[in-house]
Each structure stands twice: as structure tokens, then as C-alpha cells.
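Board notes (copied after class):
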Amino acid sequence: MTERLSPPSRAEQMRAAADGDRLPPARFAYDRHTWKEIVHLLVNLPVSLFGFVYVATVLFVGAGLTVTVVGFPLLAAGLLGARQLGKLERARARALLGVQVDEPSPLRLRGSRNGFFAQLWLMLKDPVGWRTVLYDFIRLPWGVLTFTVTLTSLFVLWPVLPFIARGLANADRAMVRGLLSPSDELERRIAELESDRGVVVDTAAADLRRIERDLHDGAQARLVNLAMGLGLAKEKLLEDPEYAASMVEEAHGEVKLALQELRDLARGIHPAVLTDRGLDAALSSVASRCTVPVKVTVDLAARPAQAIEGIAYFTVSELLQNISKHSAARSASVEVWRSKDRLLIQVWDDGRGGARLDGGTGMRGLADRLGAVDGLFVIDSPQGGPTTVTAELPWRDRGPDQG
């Protein structure tokens, strides 16, 4: 016996291709696809029963305890667990129903900079977790229905079971696509962007404090000493011209040092060589000041947006400073290239290794800064070395007003 299906319309073909669910228009009634659908429908009952019990015991209890201290953390943990249930359901649908549903983006919970309550709020607003909760909540009556109908049809309605299984399985496919697909993650992205905004504000405030400290302790202090020295030289000009001349000479040296400190400070804000000549020249300049020989390779046909270029520059600059101070390396390398819509950076050294995000060398700050612009930061640094740090930034084209 074969199951004949009406030829799909063009729109249906396009939808099937987009979903990755390309089923043949005709097939044997009891082929492997049908048996997979039957197995899926029979397994619906225990799976849906487990999901419903989980939702009722964990999430409802968490919601009921929100008047206490433990309620919201328990509810957030329940939503994280619901995400894992959704992952298992997507895997089951892929294996038994042939539904190709992408996994949603992971819920990025960064380090202590965000704080416990910011992370808790991010988990509580997770739309992926809440859609999975809804999926598990409505599945119990559906699981009972599909199990009962399929089991009864195995003994009573054997000739038409393939058609029944196909209809019920199609309803399952629709539920998986509608509630477990990552098609609508706008709310999650908004929540992440709100969290990222806090990281950006904290980073900017820290940079301003650093600039203020450098000005106060460096160039400003030298200029104050310079003014006092020139005042004394002016008083001694008629009484002791030779002494006044020596003081002016000393003041001239202070001016040179102050100018150099101001140049270094300006380079720390945004170096002129980066603006004028791009990453290749700017990173080569940074590498020349490193205490370890560094090979720089920049393979870019065009320049990214100024903001991305600046983040890439300061990321490499800080990594090379860490190599100089902490790695005891003999050589290092920097590679920068573009892959589709991403800017990739890899910094390698043959030092002692052991670098970590929580190692106190600024790695956590770099990871947070890249994460705030939807970037990635990965460290591979076993004890004994070598160390490879890979950074990834979104590629944004340079605007016409950026040169």
C-alpha cells in the first residue's frame, strides 16, 4: 500500500525548503518515515508528562515563592532548565520528524561586572525559556491524545494508521516550529543590549577615570612644576642670570617630558596612526614597543568602522602588554583578517601559559568590552603554554564620513 499525497503548491515547496522538511510526495505507507512518526507519537505521552510535571513543580512553586528571597532565583533556574527541555525536544523532532529547527542563541551570562541581579533579570525575561514553558504546559493533553489514538490504531485501524500518524505528526511539527524555533528572539536581544549598555557605561567611566588620573599624576603635575620653576627663574633673572638660565634649561626638559606624556595619553585615547593609516600600521607600532619580538600580519582589503577598528586596536594593545609583563615569552604573533561579516584577531605567544579570564590581567575587561558589541573572546592557555587568544568582532563597513 502506498500513501499518495496531492502535489504541493509552489508556496508549500518554498516553505518546506526553508524549514528543511523536504518530504517525498509519495512513499510506502509503512516506510521508515512512518515508523519514526509512530514512535514519536507514542513517546509523546511520557515526554509531555515529564515536561508538565517539571513546569508545575519548579516554575509554579518558584512563582508562588516570589514573595520570599528564594522565589525569583528558583524561577530563573526553572527557566534555564526549561531551555534544556526545549533543546531535547528539538533534537527529538529532528531525529524522528525530520524538522530542521535551529538552536536559539545561548543566554549569555557574563561575569561579575553585570552583577547578580542583572543576570537574574536577564534569565527571568528570557523569551526562549517562557515559550518552552508554554510548550510543555499545553503538551500533556496532546500527548495523551496522540498516544491513545496511535496505540489504538495499531490494533484497530492498521490500514489507515499511516495517514493518521502523518496528520498528528504534522501538528507536532507545527508546534515545534511555532514554540521552539528561534524565529522571534527580539525580546532576548533587547534584554542583552540593555545589559551590554551597562557594560559600555562602566567601561567608559573607567576609561575617563584613567585619563583623569594620568593627567593629574603626569602631565598636569609636570606643568605645575614647570610654572613654579619658570616663576623662580624670573625672580633670579637679574640677581643670578646663570642660575636662572639653568632653571630655564631644566624647565625646557620638563616641557619635553610633558609633551611626551600628552602624546602617550592621546595615543591611549585614539592613536593618530590608527586614524591615518589603519590597523596594519597601528598594530605594527604597538608591536615595536613590546619587549617580545612580534610578527604582525593584517589581511584586510578594506577598513572596518572606526569603532570596531578602535576596539580591535586596544584589544591587541592590551594583549601585547600582558605578554610583555606576564608571559616570559620569546616570540609572539598577531594575525588580523576578515571572515564574511566578522573581524577575527588571533594573538599567540610561546610563554608560560596559564592565562584566565579571572587571572587579574585585564582579560575579563576585554571579554566584557567585546561582548558589549556582540563579539567573542576565547582563551586557550594551558599551563606551560603556548597561549592563543582569539577575538571576534562584527564587521561594520566604514561610513563615507570616516575616510
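Comment from the instructor: The beta strands are 2-4, 26-28, 294-299, 332-339, 342-349, 376-380, 387-394. The domain at 196-269 is CATH 1.20.5 (Single alpha-helices involved in coiled-coils or other helix-helix interfaces).
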